[in-house]
Amino acid sequence: MKKVLVKNIGMLATPEGRSARRGAEQGTVRTRKDAWVLIEDGVIAAVGTGAAPDAPETVDACGNLVTPGLVDAHTHLVFGGWRQNELGLKLHGASYLDIQNAGGGIQSTTNATRGASERELADKAARALDEMLAFGTTTCEAKSGYGLATEHELKELRVIRDLNERHPIDLVATFMGAHLVPAEYRNDRAAYVRLVCEEMLPLVEEQGVAEFCDVFCEADTFTAEESRKILEAGLRHGLRPKIHADEIEAIGGSVLAGELGAISAEHLIVCPDEGIASMARGGTIACLLPATSFNLGAAFAPARAMVNAGVPVAMATDFNPGSCPCLNMQFVINLGCLKYKLTPEEVLTAVTLNGAAAIDRAGTIGTVEPGKLGDLVIWDAPDLDYICYRVGSNLARTVIKQGVVVR
Ligand code: NIG
Ligand code: FE
How far apart are CA 75 and CA 157, in angstroms? Predict the structure, then answer.
């Protein structure tokens, strides 16, 4: 058995439990001073304070803050090319949907992704994962959605599966064939929805390459009715629903999320009260993406209203080449406090346990408790307030994945 002791922890801060935390519980974080964590074969065996047990291998936290590894529950990790050309368009007043409707946006990334080999996509995504790990992310969700054709959607999902094998970060795959109606179906949307439901989803199920099905429910993208059709088909093929909802216009996505009992709804920038109520009824987690609001110059989601309504709030990067080319969860933490006005404790829960719950991993990661994976970050920081308050530096000092120092 491989035993590793993380010792000399000045402050250990972690939410507790094996399910999403909502309401006042979102802000309840256990802190311990002068703590240690014993990891056996990659799994946390014991957590304590004061005198530590002996172990053949030790990692000295040098009196610093330790938290669970960060969980990035929403990324579009696998794509060809970048879209830096859109910055100039945006500076001259074009909106996200203007650029998309002119053939830029998701369609242009789709063209680049279709032209890339599996190897090229994997090497590029692996570099992004290296960077994420350096910022403290130990598990991340990754969506397809830049293939928009059966062979290319499956190609992206295979890349995610292979990266999960070869990279220390654990990956969780989401099928998002309904990211955009691709150019070749522009005059027959219904045919594309049928392709997703009748051809792509059965193959995704057969090949076992995704756990969730996501849809971009948005003006000029997929209507709420189309989204329902696709997510219900996903359910029939064993994929739990997620939904990009209320990012730019509220066209019913958050209400639908609650009605379907979706595991999470994402963005929710302009989420109406009825959407919040529906998510609370349906047990849906709000997966908020503040770096996207920042990057789009948009408003920030009504996080406080969600916490007050008993909707668990998670936060993630939304890393993608268009609306959010950011893979730094520490920036998300900053924005959670500064823009959502969540407390450091609420934010920590959002980026660990609630993120884990949004990808159905709350039983195995997201907290520092016996039985969970030994995924930890040792910070260059004395306490939780400090990592929320410092902006623009990388404060992750050591990253531990399943008991192994990986950074
Ligand atoms: O979550 N909104 C839809 N999908 C991504 C953006 C994708 C892109 O712009 O390439 C998002 O923001
Ligand atoms: Fe997204």
Answer: 13
